[in-house]
Amino acid sequence: MKNNSQFDKSESSVERQDPFVIRSFEPFLNGRWIGEAVSYGCYRSGQAPAVKGPSVAEIEEDLQIILRHWNLIRIYGSDEDSERILKHIRNQHLPVMVMLGVWLENETGHPERREENIAQTMQCIKLANEYTDLIAAVCVGNETQVSWSAHRMDQQDLIKYIRLVRNNTNAPVTTADDYSFWITFDSKAVADEIDFIVTHLYSMWNGITLENAIEWMDRIFFQEVMAMHPDKVAIIGEAGWATNYNTRKTGPGEQASLIKGTVDMAAQEYYLTHLHNWITKTRVSTFLFEAFDEPWKGGGENSDPDEVEKHWGVFYENRQPKISFINYLRHHEKREDTTGPDSPETIR
Length: 348
Known about the structure:
348 residues, alpha/beta, TIM Barrel, 10 helices, 10 strands
């Protein structure tokens, strides 16, 4: 790999490698499809990115919980915590594949962020090359292009980071964004630089009621995202249903105004069941958002405890399963009893 000077301080782009040969995203482990996956935020109470990360013992507890249900996880950054997760997976020979992230933020209005963006990217390249056996893909940037993003960045900056990772690793490379970006013509320039598309599809955030949630997701994915990018493979990088939200937070763009569907444990159970059925039917790789509640989100631990960003997990922050997830699993255990362990209708 060339040194950091290849990503110099000028505005010139990192050169694109041509011909552009697609690297296939293959969510398989020991010949078994693992595309029903989960997003893993590792931060517990008192922890947050760049503040305090989990211990090895906490990572072990998390991964053992995850392994009961999933074998493919998504992590969002390339830092010491990410490296600790990858190292533990390898040291313990755990059957887990990882979509590794690079966390990027706007550096045009915030030039001080540039050094951190470069550091994240270089660390990702290091980890992707060191843990090639564990890395299913690399996701460079998360929601950096959609209009409402708090860390929206210039498209050419994003493309430079994508090229840098792709030029210096052998992993499939992508970027994740909301569907409302991927259905624009502006998204084609980004799609041309990646191996596959990762889209986020939140029925709840888009004012869709629970009974219409999966139908809406199916329509947006196939009739809009895939229609805009017919030559690309696409997967869902985030989809889920929270169990609580702040009903007092009203106004344009606020959660109480955007969310129209029921938000509680029963609603999440319903959503999990129907999402699983949709994944089984379509075989579209999908990362459930998310495994564990994360109290550092939604303004931090001193913010309103009802903030929706704190309540997307199917496990509480203390790693106890929510009743929604317990009931969902019971439903599928009963189904397994009648369909058999090799049926495509089973959860594993």
